[in-house]
Queue: 2 jobs
Job 1
Amino acid sequence: QGLPLGDSKKYVIGDIKVTGTTTYSEKIVVGFTKLKEGDEIYIPGDKLSKVIKDLWDTGLFSDINFYITNVEGNVADLELEIKEVPVLNQARITGVKKKTETEDLIDENNLKPGVKVTENLITTTKNYIESKYSKEGYFNASANIDVRPFTDTTGVKNRVNMIVNVDKGDRVKIDEIKFTGNEQFPDAKLRRNMKKTKQKNPIRFWKRSKYVENEFENDKLSIIEKYKESGFRDARITSDTLIIKNAEEIALELTIEEGSQYVIGEIDYLGNTVYTDDQLNRVLGLKKGDIYNGVLIDERIQGRDPSKQSVSNIYQNNGYLFSNIDLVETNVYNDTIDFEIRIVEGKEAYFDEIFVTGNDKTKDHVIYRELLTKPGQKYSQEAVVGTIRELGRLGYFDAEQLEPEFIDPNPQTGTLSLEYPVVEAGASQIELQGGYGGGGFIGTLGLSFNNFSVQGLFDKDAYDPIPMGDGQTLSLRAQASTYYQTYSLSFREPWLGGKRPVSFSTSFSYTRQFLFDYINRRADKTRSFDILGVSIGLAKRLQEPDQFMTISNQIGFQRYDLNNYNTGLFTFGDGFSNNLYYQFGISRDNTRINPIFPTGGSLFNITAKFTPPYSLWNGIDYGNLENNPDYQLKDDNGNLVDYNGNRVSPENSVPDTEKVDQKKYNWLEFYKIKFAGTWYTTLANFGPSKDLVLKTSAEYGFLGAYNSERGIPPFERFYVGGDGLGQYSLDGRETIQLRGYENQSIIPLDRPSNARDDGATIYNKYSMELRFPITLKQAASIYMLTFAEAGASYDNFRDYNPFQVNRSAGAGLRIFMPTFGLLGIDFGYGFDPVVGQQGPSGWQTHFIIGQQF
Amino acid sequence: KDSAVKYQMAEKLYTEGKAEEDKSKLRKALRLFEQIIPEFRGKPQGQRVVFLLADTYFLLGDYFLSPFEFERFNQLYPDSDKAEEAKFKEAASYYYRSPRFNLDQTDTDKAIEELQTYLNTYPEGENAELANTMATELRIKLEKKAYEIAKQYHHTEYYKAAIAAFNNFLADYPGSPFREAAYYYRAESAYLLAINSVPYLMETRLNEAKELYSTYNKYYPEGEYSAQTADYSADIDTRLQNF
């Protein structure tokens, strides 16, 4: 019954009635009060006050009043008048453009439907929004909140809509940044160190001089960092003042206390048993008297970037996972700092178990053979990083999601286990094209399975939808049009036998082409040209001089069969030509990490392709063939004739070039040497997966003959210019990309204008490309590029001039999607004229499909 | 009412589909069950509908959804007389999901765990014997995985890694059918490591290999690899005479 208050009276409660707006039933509200009929209370009294307070605390009501409606004796009827807090139906935010920003504001202020709209909520929301935008530089931001009752058809009462009207106003600009107390660095230099907080400058239009509080805080730290790098390790900003000049402009004033410049005194090592002081000093690379650069010292001691040297790294790369290195300043005198590097080496750590998880397609043995960390091996940070690189290079997994996990590192036993969680990525590519070109429909079907399993072919459970997981590559391609068909199949097993990375590859291809009759617009099926090719190759990754080297061997055979096929491509229309060759290659590839977008490393290739030197032993005098009556022009009766068909005497006979060339090229004889080098350098990093990368490359190729009289065959030649996409290559030709010029348009300058265009025997090319990723996500990798390149082709070394080149520059875009491979477009401008043309080559557009570079 | 008709239809399709192993009937049943389930929630027939839905997923081989449906059933109706069957089928779903040994075994681990839970809850259960067989099969799968990984180190001539991996294998999987081979290949790894060592390490390593061969002999005196063991042990003895 509580305590009486003042001149209160004790009553027995009679009836309790609830009035006012409420969505609750009367019973529930009475329940809230915990009062019931028959209770004795003092009115006024603390009990009643408490009831009101409790009701208030529920947050459901905005107004609470008790009235005595009727008194009979000591029985009082009470009326409880309440006003319920309205419930939010919907909050709308106006004045904010982005949807995410709207959603953020709703989330951050908890403006969800069903929330009680109290005065407090309205005020805090308003304040929150205004302060949020002011922190982002919108000093004039204001938020007006309009609460409107809302009634819907269901008749639920007491609901409101909240309309939050945000007016961000203009961002304030920084008119001026002033420094005082800086003697060591001029104002301008300090301002340059502020990356995001810039003062107004009419010529710097790409970075606005906006003021954002968080950025300003970061920029202050980077000023201090700048001082620290130069030995001013006590430097601090003693005050910063923001002066509001007018509605749009502010000024910042920073006072800096530089302190004095410190130098390094004695460096002592403590606790090192594995490495001597001298060895550690060499790693540290700092000596007494050097300026005390706190940032650099920290990097050289604690730095974990595997590409840089640091004391921590040499321990981490040699088993000392549990090592701990501390830098302690022991003495500071006359601006000189002595310090001690305290090393707790800990026990050497060994790998216990190595796990791979997440491989739901790729089989264990395909992954484990690539791991550089093995059970029982000493821990090495380098090996872990290297393993990630190797796994990324396989292309079966999402390179951006590879992150090793340490399991149970135990400093007592000196063991740890490692887990490599992998995420499978689509490793198959499908190419399906149809198009109209060259006088007919061309259809292409290409399938490339990069993680194929031949073994799975015989296992019906493995078809999902195709057998995968053995790390083999199978490519099938068929292209057909009205006048040609080409089929090819290639297969590669990267670890033949599974013992060593010896890659076995084999390919088969067949092309049949009919002469196209342009007049009747149909293919002449009686005249054809067949090419059959087979090859077998073995390539081996070397351990010496380093694990990035690969040597490869290939034996191949191609047969060209011409059946009344005179097109000028060959000097003879009936006949054949065989190309049996051996190719040897050395390559070194340490590009990292993402194969689609390497950010570092280089790739070198040297290949040499030889045919047997038949002319050494077959005794044919190729130089004298034209004087041999067998190879001279004759009429149908076997009489010598000249080109006009008139009979001539043997002294005036002329050679039958068809026969001579058929003899010369029945078995091709040549050697071809190529070199290509590509370097990737990260120029700047703008956050994770945002590297600005420079790709530099140089290429050379040379095709030569053993026997100058037999000559260099018209096959296997270099065709420079254009997108570099190998169309269907009839004759082992190599198309060399040079953007900004039409396909295969760059022919040797010194060549007589009437010569046949059968490609060059020498070429060189230089290229620089700047690349920047837009996204490197699993589903699609996209990057932009700009390039400048130059290249040229020559007929012989006499004409060779590495500086007489065709230059071009341009820009483009690449999109890589796992199922489609690489797609791209480049716009290139060729600065030099091509042979037979006046003026520069001009703008060219190139579409890039499937090229993996 | 509409949903009652649908329910009858669904159950008919389910029963027929199950008996005739007709997937298209089961798929139709599934669609109906999914439609009516919200209306039956909390009603007496709800129990049956939830179970049948789960079982339809199971019969259709959708082992990614069936375990969750069975689990939900057991949470909603822990006292149902179908609880045992549901628990078993939940575990069995994971069993069917378990991939070949040389792929990620997360589902295998989960299946063993679930089968074990089933066996602990219903030691005398109707499917206890089957669950035991399944669990054993899965354990052997895990053993095969670990063994093959260790064996690969041996094959790729990382003998130290092979020895370490076989040691882990022997410690982790007592009673595995691959133990004999593991003992043998551990010894052979040690032997191959020893004979390819620099001279000053060779003697110790040969002795270690000898030790491992005799361990093999101790456990498998008449084993599959006894002949090779005898040969290699003799070879080690000859080589050791040089020291």
Job 2
Amino acid sequence: MVFKRLQLTRPRRWPALMLTISAGLIALMMVLPLGYLLLRTSEAGDAAWAQLQRPTTLRVFTGSALLAITVTLGSLLIGLPLAWLTTRTNLPGARIWLGLIMLPMAIPSYIGAWAIIAVLGPRGLLQQWLAPLGVERLPEVYGFWGAAGALILFGYPYIVLNVRVALRKLDPALEEAARSLGQRSGQIFWRITLPQLRPALAAGSLLVVLYALSDFGAVSLLRYSSFTRAIYLQYRASFDRTGAAVLSLLLVGLACGLLAAEALSRGRARYYRSSAGVSRQAKVVELGRWRWPALLFCSVVVLFAVVLPIVAIVAWLIIGIRSGQAWNVQLADLGNSLLAASLAALVTIVLAFPVVFLAVRYPSRLTSLIERATYVGYALPGIVVALALVFWGANYVPWAYQTLGLLILAYAVRFLPQAIGSLRTSLLQINPRLEEAGRSLGQPPWRVVLSITLPLLRPGIVSGAALVFLSTLKELPATLLLGPTGFHTLATDIWNNTTELRFSQTALPALLLMLAACGSLALLLANERKT
Amino acid sequence: MHEPTTFAINCRDVSKTFNATKVLDQIDFQLPSGSLGALLGPSGCGKTTLLRLIAGFETIDQGHIWLGDREIASAKTHVPTEQRQIGMVFQEYALFPHLTVGQNIGYGLGRQARQQRIDELLELVGLAGLAKRMPHELSGGQQQRVALARALAPNPQLLLLDEPFSNLDAGLRDQVRTATKQILRHVGATALFVTHDQEEALSLADHVTVMLGGKVMQSASPHELYLRPTSQAVAQFVGEANFLAGIARDNSVECGLGQLLLTKPMHGPVTLMIRPEALQLVPDPTGNGQILGQRFYGHDQLLDVQIGALHLAARTGPRLDLAPNLRVAVNVQGPVVAFQAESS
Amino acid sequence: MKLVRSLMLLLCLSMVIAACGGAATPTTAPAAPTTAAATPTTASAAEATATVEVTAVAEVSPTVPTTTTTEPAGGSLVVYSGRSESLVAPLLELFTQETGIAVEVRYGDTAEMAAQILEEGENSPADVFFGQDAGALGALSDRFVQLDSSLLSLVDPRFASSGGKWVGASGRARVLVYNTDVLTSTDLPASILDLTKPEWKGRLAWAPTNGSLQAFVTALRVSQGEDVAKQWLEGLIANEIKVYESNSAIVKAVANGEVDAGLVNHYYLFALKKDQPDAKAANHYFSNGDIGSLVNVAGVGILQTAKNPAAAQAFASFLLSETAQNYFTEKTNEYPLVAGITTNPAIKPLSEITTPDIDLSNLKDLQGTLELLQDVGAIQ
């Protein structure tokens, strides 16, 4: 096994050098929020120390870490079986289930959490149904378990998405070899399949863990004191923004710790096919009578993650229609949402390319640092990223401030790791020999990338683009602060109506948002079938 | 630096270091035009690295590589792979999984007459009619031939093959080797392949280069290499050999088997190399040797023979029934190769 | 490649939707200045128009006419609104109709917008900030210009910055919302401090993370001292007060019997009654002068960096005009702050509430409140 090393002193290494420079610039862009936070904290001086020493700070720190870890484990526990069931087994209606279990990505967490409260909360729908049976109180939905449960329901699709890509590309020869060595299915899964899925699991977990750290909607509605909630409270309360900056920096520290742990677990293994040639599709596992528990499992997940929020939204829509105030959505807002989300997906994928290529094809400490740096924006609450870009934008590029361009850039800062995770998983599975073969046949590197690497990366590109698209559809803080004046999207419509307590009027934009998201999910799944 | 040459590929003083490990150490290596060369060595000897340097996938630290008259690599120059006109067949074939067989073969071709060339090559490798298949629908042997056809398609000046037969099962391997050799001969290509299998190197190549520990040990025809290795290490790696000590004087040497003829004059303490098949065994109750063990292969048999304090391996035809304990007379056929004994 | 094509398609599609939708969207920019005198939509606005032009516009008369003529569409007024679009947009249309000044408006959360303006610094595009919390307005005091005394004099000094940096436009009272099935008005306490009594154990709700509650606690600290505030908070927690995320959630919980009573702003009840006209909830106002009957404001300040100060001035005047004041009380059930405006009959008149003696400018010390709330465990 030969490792390519970066030797930047060598002039003829210019493709690697160019890649490093562009990826470095991208990473620099992504750590703009970090720069902002350091600036604010350094201005604060003693106040920053005081904030650090408050007992609440430690409590929030451990609370957030615990929440993030619980959510990740829970998402793995739900996401991994779902990915396997929909990819490798004869689960009845697998494609429909797949569509359904991915749907939570289309539901903003504040709507989902709110639906959970409406149904499972004290005096919620469930309690009302059970009241005739003498049930007076339900288990507490607020607090740690409620928040963790809600975040798991919105986090597991990241695992499913990443693992499916890997499962479909997994070399069945490896499993067959294990079977020939007399191992039983269970053993094969633990000893062969799971280790091969490690990069996908890691990429998915990273997205979930950082999502759990940065989400605001669910923790706020379900009243759990995570970093995000504490940071928002600081912004609400202290307009000097120091406390928020200190807490945000701590959050970045926590995220860095998690990133480092993940990097250590990555090791140096190779994940592309080891055997010769191109192998066949994996065999479909017959579920037999196990299909009933499998179907039950899928149903329960879909019930909580999809049916509940949709029922809640539809119920509000009906209330809204009755009072004659539901149809207030501008078509332009839907258009703006789609436009912004498509552009964000496009730009983010383009930005992810150099970073992923560098990190995968030229692994070194520098390149992995560059890759890791891009995760900063994803770990931070949206309001922090948005305010950071307000600061840099208004003061250093005022001509670009509050334009669509800067807004798209803000989306990229927030969601780049989603694209990077997907692309990385795909690229790891492409044998570099394929690119060498292309070049040995007389094609220059850019042609090889276009004709070989890109088509093979398609599953990763599509899933990365879809993730960014979905996240952008739901994004609020950056859209509010950085969008061009008068730029309304479905998300701002929802926000606008919820702040005014007109839940009945949030229903239509929320439904439209979910429909738009379903469209992109359909595109994603249709594409998956072709490859 | 210009070095006029009639070689297809010419490496001078090539060194390469990875992570402070010297993988290639002052390699000198040439391959005449139109010949089929083999780079032979155990895994980790640097042969694949040398192949990748020639292909241009890696840069060299020191030395020069010429392709024909063109310098393609040195410490200062690095002609990119795609401009070298070197074809490559990878160990894992590296067929593009999203392209059909025909598209794979046509990948390196311009638009003009592409289809004609694809058909021609499919015909050549015996896969006519399979152009529309996807690579994963082919058997291992067929995939190997597609890889070969793809590499040959742009008429490269030089074809490199990295362990091209190692992924085939034993029954198929021989057949594919022969077919590959025929195809390469037919198109008159200059080809260089890497292998750790000495039998493969000797049977296929016109020209075999043995590499050990990042150095070229010997470059010669298979015949020369087998019969006249220049070092004990090469002798040991290529084929089986008996080594025994002796004292040389001019053209003869005194050893445990008596006085033997040398291939070239030498003096002083030497190590002799005797191939097992050079030992001729004749059943003889008064013979100087005794059979200790026998392994019968059908086309021949390998025998463990004791002569005094010496244990030797001998190979002979299947006809003689040489059961253990039988006494035999041992004769050495032809002159023997000797190496200067190491001074320690 | 199919993928690229479908992405392109999506992009084109969304642009088309955005384009035709955009054309259909009513913009706040005036079609032509001449429409300024177009027929007002409501009777009250019609009555108002004359007065407004006399009272408000007249005060800035040297500048207003020039701005309308010298400022083409490009030089419009930029409003940062911490109040929601459905409330503000119609109001801005009235403004544009009356003055001919085109408006660009950005909506957001009041506190986040205050932070945004602070971050933008000298380059802030905003001309005016229209926020719904005196604390946020106070935090931006250093960035506001001194307001004209003629403007400040329209409003009771209780509802303006003591330094004259911002002025309140509408009022919002703190109340106790209660379930009318469980409680009658006679059961309810005179002072908010009585809620720590044992008879309220397990029956109350609050939203300690909500800005208006925090503003109230700040007022409590400022007027009665840290100790009283701390004891009160601890008493409520000892009384097992239930935590909700927002005022609206409390009103809902009270209406469906989840809790008996909760601390909220007065107008949330009316928002709920829009969706559920028969909701079993009512507002209780604490006694006159009790800190519990605090009235906070939504108000306006003009940025020092305003590019269009004259238009900004006109906007501030407009918010205190009869048109706008009527609009607030009718549309949002808030209190008009300018004397002589008829209050929406649904709400208890402001004149009947003696608000506690508090300088609303002092409510910007929310940091201390937040720390106190955290220390007593109200916010974890």
